[in-house]
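Q: Please design a sequence for this.
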């Protein structure tokens, strides 16, 4: 029998409690139940929830991307959503994939989300907060490069709807260009300024066929871009600002007044010009190196280690192992992909050379930065030699080769610049990847002779049944301008002139051998006329620029040899059949004059030695007379950009495509 008021048995128990976001256990004395068990303690429910473990973990920002384009709705995203989106480091690859999987029609249906993205990104950039600004610029660069590349039913209006809406496009894009311009000019760090250039490049190249680019034209980005180029420490970093300036300068330049052309002409900042030229030199060096990596044609000087390496004993001399040689099919495939996207910056070089004579002077005369690399113009010519040898491999390479020929044309037709080209000497490495090879020139040489080699190489290495008539026509025009200047100024060069005559007359033989294929091509007759102009300039003015009488005699000797081919060329292409004063008839008459003299001598002596033939040629000068139009003056007609409108628009389309690909990298 239990005693009254006897103390009940008790037991110590631990009770879990949630305090200050932490799970704690509090000790408590719990009475035993009648069965002798402790009474059940009450446990508060934990606020923690367990999510389902995902198959693949991904950054949180990717979930925000998915949430931005989930379905068709017009719900406003909370302010915290945008702050978090631009606070987190962007996942460029995943954002590009998500946008790439979104079709243009779906983007139009959810245009509210894309419009809000642009508006809040602009606000983030204007805030000036560094990490958020960088993230917003990276996000916009990807957004523009992917969204603007899609195929829309009505490109201009549909793109406006996706980005800003027809009602708000003026306000949004005015704010966008103002923000980007300020960011490029005074964006704080160089990294932010470069990212602003990349974002601007993405929207300009992507929307180049729409009216949206007019906002960037009206704003005038030229001062901000030139300021950035002048302040950059590494010349390669200036490629994107220069490309952007070139795109803006060529936008509708033949339809409306473009203020960037005036900016190019009025630009007189010497230090900034030199920075631009060094950037062009660095770009040319990088582009040339891409060719050399595929097929190394670096000249190797003699050495003991080199000789041992040749016979497989290079390890004895500590020589570095040679780079592996790629199989020929792989070389062809890689060479067809050249040149790199950086070549698009040469459009800006064209505009500077066209509009600014001071820039042309600096371009030719600027020395190397440190002596380890050749001067900028030497590097430009060197890269072009690789480009010209492989211009036939793609229409893109041919287009850029044509662009650089326009640059050379503008330079050589200006007497002041042509004089600099004839007087300035520097080492120039020319491409030697494909035969036939011109004689190698070691040491310094004048730029004028390097340009002649460059043009000769281009003529030799692009002979195809489907002849690139534009490339050949422009090459011959540049050559005729240069020879005309040399003849008028009586500038004599020691140069392998015989190689030039051999290449030109070989081209004559090619035109007659493949006349059925060539005559179908556009401008084929113009190519033939240009070729005859070069030969007649050499004939009538060669005495003024060839170094001695022997070189002049060699020209006549080769013309005599080619007399029958010239007649066949005239008859095949039906050129100048009724004009005795035409260049080709003059060349034929000179050839026939000497042929008659040689035949008269052969009646006395059956076999004539080369020395005897040369003697006949010298005697023939006394009886030689010909009446020819002043072809040198005809060839010296100044370059007018409007005459090249079609070609320049084609070049601009290629550059815009490369710029869009560059911005999307």
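A: Design:
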């Amino acid at each position: 029998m239990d005693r009254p008021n006897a103390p009940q048995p008790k037991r110590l128990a631990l009770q879990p409690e949630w305090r200050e976001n932490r799970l704690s256990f509090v000790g408590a004395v719990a009475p035993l139940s009648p069965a002798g068990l402790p009474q059940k303690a009450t446990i508060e429910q934990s606020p923690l929830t367990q999510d389902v473990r995902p198959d693949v973990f991904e950054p949180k920002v990717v979930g925000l991307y998915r949430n931005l384009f989930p379905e068709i709705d017009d719900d406003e995203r909370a302010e915290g959503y945008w702050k978090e989106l631009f606070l987190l480091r962007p996942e460029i690859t995943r954002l590009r994939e998500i946008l790439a999987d979104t079709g243009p029609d779906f983007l139009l249906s959810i245009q509210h989300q894309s419009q809000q993205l642009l508006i809040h990104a602009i606000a983030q950039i204007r805030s000036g907060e560094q990490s958020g600004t960088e993230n917003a610029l990276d996000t916009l660069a990807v957004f523009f490069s992917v969204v603007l590349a899609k195929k829309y039913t009505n490109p201009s209006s549909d793109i406006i709807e996706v980005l800003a809406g027809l009602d708000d496009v003026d306000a949004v894009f005015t704010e966008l260009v103002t923000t980007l311009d300020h960011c490029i000019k005074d964006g704080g760090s160089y990294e932010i300024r470069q990212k602003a250039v990349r974002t601007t490049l993405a929207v300009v190249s992507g929307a180049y066929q729409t009216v949206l680019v007019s906002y960037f034209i009206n704003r005038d980005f030229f001062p901000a871009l030139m300021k950035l180029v002048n302040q950059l420490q590494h010349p390669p970093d200036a490629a994107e600002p220069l490309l952007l300036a070139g795109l803006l300068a060529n936008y509708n330049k033949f339809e409306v007044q473009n203020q960037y052309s005036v900016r190019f002409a009025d630009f007189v900042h010497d230090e900034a010009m030199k920075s631009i030229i060094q950037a062009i030199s660095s770009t040319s060096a990088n582009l040339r190196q891409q060719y050399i990596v595929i097929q190394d044609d670096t000249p190797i000087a003699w050495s003991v280690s080199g000789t041992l390496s040749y016979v497989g004993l290079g390890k004895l001399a500590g020589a570095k192992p040679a780079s592996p040689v790629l199989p020929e099919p792989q070389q062809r495939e890689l060479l067809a992909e050249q040149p790199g996207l950086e070549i698009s910056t040469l459009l800006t070089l064209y505009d500077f050379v066209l509009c600014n004579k001071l820039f042309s002077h600096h371009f030719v005369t600027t020395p190397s930065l440190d002596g380890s690399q050749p001067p900028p113009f030497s590097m430009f010519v060197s890269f072009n030699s690789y480009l010209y040898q492989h211009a036939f491999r793609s229409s893109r390479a041919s287009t850029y080769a044509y662009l650089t020929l326009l640059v050379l044309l503008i330079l050589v037709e200006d007497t002041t610049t042509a004089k600099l080209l004839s007087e300035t000497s520097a080492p120039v490495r020319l491409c030697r990847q494909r035969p036939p090879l011109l004689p190698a020139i070691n040491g310094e040489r004048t730029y004028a002779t390097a340009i002649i080699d460059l043009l000769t190489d281009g003529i030799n290495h692009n002979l195809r049944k489907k002849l690139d008539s534009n490339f050949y026509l422009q090459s011959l025009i540049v050559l005729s301008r240069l020879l005309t200047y040399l003849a008028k100024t009586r500038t004599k060069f020691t140069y392998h002139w015989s190689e030039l005559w051999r290449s030109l007359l070989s081209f004559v033989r090619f035109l007659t051998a493949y006349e059925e294929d060539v005559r179908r091509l556009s401008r084929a007759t113009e190519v033939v006329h240009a070729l005859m102009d070069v030969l007649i300039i050499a004939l009538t003015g060669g005495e003024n620029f060839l170094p001695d009488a022997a070189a002049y005699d060699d020209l006549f000797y080769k013309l005599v040899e080619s007399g029958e081919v010239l007649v066949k060329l005239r008859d095949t292409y039906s050129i100048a059949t009724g004009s005795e004063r035409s260049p080709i008839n003059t060349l034929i008459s000179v050839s026939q004059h000497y042929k008659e003299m040689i035949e008269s001598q052969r009646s006395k002596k059956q076999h004539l030695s080369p020395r005897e033939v040369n003697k006949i040629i010298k005697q023939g000068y006394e009886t030689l007379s010909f009446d020819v139009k002043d072809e040198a003056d005809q060839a010296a007609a100044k370059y007018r950009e409007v005459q090249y409108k079609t070609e320049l628009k084609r070049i601009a389309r290629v550059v815009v495509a490369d710029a869009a690909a560059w911005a999307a990298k």
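Q: Thanks. Anything notable?
A: The two ends are 92 Å apart (CA to CA). The chain has three domains: 60-219, 236-298+326-462, 465-638.
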